Amino acid sequence: VQLVESGGGSVQPGGSLTLSCAVSGYTSRTVCMGWFRQAPGKAREGVATIDYDGRTDYADFVDGRFTISRDNAQSTLYLQMNSLKPEDSAMYYCAALYPCSLAAFAARSWGQGTQVTVSS
């Protein structure tokens, strides 16, 4: 199982980024996928999850700013992030999950992460 994130970068507050995660090594359509993040000195926290049928769940701090999606044909997971805040700065990871949960313990595979920095 390989998960490879991309799309991170530096943006100003209020800006947008779209993260991608390429999935290979197993049939992604049978699993729940999610995005997590970890800031320096803080625990890894769940951001959003999506199952094969497109049902989604978001952490409270997302507050309608982020959208998780997946392209099962292309085995790719996305996270569209809008209205970014400095507190969104973190390393963002995609994960294959079982059970489908925002809790980090549910991750069965992790990507290497992509850095998101929000600063003026």
State the gist of this model.
With 120 residues, this protein is mostly beta strands. It has no helices and eleven strands. The strands form two sheets. Strands 2, 4, 5, 6, 9, 10 and 11 form a seven-stranded mixed beta sheet that branches. A four-stranded antiparallel beta sheet has the order 1-3-8-7, with no helix packed on it.
Commentary on this structure:
- This protein has 120 residues and is mainly beta.
- It is 0% helix and 51% strand.
- It contains no helices and 11 strands.
- It has strands spanning 2-6, 9-11, 17-24, 32-38, 45-50, 56-58, 66-71, 76-81, 90-97, 107-110, 114-118.
- The strands form 2 sheets. Strands 2, 4, 5, 6, 9, 10 and 11 form a 7-stranded mixed beta sheet that branches.
- Strand 7 (66-71) and strand 8 form a beta hairpin.
- It is globular, with a radius of gyration of 13 Å.
- The mean pLDDT is 93.
CA-based gyration radius: 13 Å
Unreliable sequence segments: none
Q: Give, in order, the helices and strands.
A: EEEEEEEEEEE
Mean pLDDT equals 93
Highlighted features:
mainly beta, 7-stranded mixed β-sheet
Q: How is the secondary structure organized here?
A:
Blueprint: E1 2-6, E2 9-11, E3 17-24, E4 32-38, E5 45-50, E6 56-58, E7 66-71, E8 76-81, E9 90-97, E10 107-110, E11 114-118
